[in-house]
Amino acid sequence: MHPERVSELILLNASARLLAADDYPIGVAGDVMDTLIEMIRAGWGTPEMTALQNPSVAHDRALVNELARFARAASTPRAAAAQYDYMGRSVDVRQVLPLIQVRTLVLGVNQCWFVPIEQARYLK
User: Fold this and answer.
1) Where are the chain's structural domains?
2) How many angstroms separate the CA atoms of 13 and 106, rounded?
3) 85, 91, 114, 120: CA torsion to nearest 10
């Protein structure tokens, strides 16, 4: 809405929409969404969940522990699950993607379990 305020954009593990729809088959199914939300509620901020979210650094225990600490500082498990639930079921920005007028770098983790790589590719 205000392109003069943004010079460039970087998106990491982003999605225009998470939930599958008839016109968006790369989305996740509702039962998968339920499972993901429960995983977030049960494991947010734990090293195990952090390793799942960041498979390329899972071998680095010190980094995984630090990232888990950041997650705990950023949100409670309940709030993180609620946010993912809301975003996953309610947000669909596909219609506004053509309005983005700045250079955009889209990055996606190939083995990210909560945002499939196909969804990052969709944004390109």
Assistant:
1) 3-122
2) 8
3) 180
Q: Give the pLDDT confidence of 23-34 residue by residue, as tens digits.
A: 999 999 999 999
Question: Which one-letter amino acid corresponds to residue 66?
Answer: E
Q: What is the pLDDT of residues 27-70, one digit of tens each?
A: 999 999 999 999 999 999 999 999 988 888 999 999 999 999 99
Residue with tokens 């995983």: 39
pTM over 0.70: yes
Burial of 15 per CB tally in 10 Å (0-12, 13-18, 19+):
buried
CA angle centred on 73, ends 67 and 75, rounded to 5°: 105
Q: Please check whether residue 58 is in contact with residue 51, taking contact to mean a CB–CB distance below 8 angstroms.
A: yes
- Given CATH 3.40.50.1820, say whether it is the number of domain 3-122: yes
- Write the CB contacts of 43 (distance below 8 Å, at least 6 apart in sequence): 49, 52, 77
Find tokens 């734990």 and name the residue. 46
Dihedral sign of CA atoms 26, 29, 33, 39 in order: negative
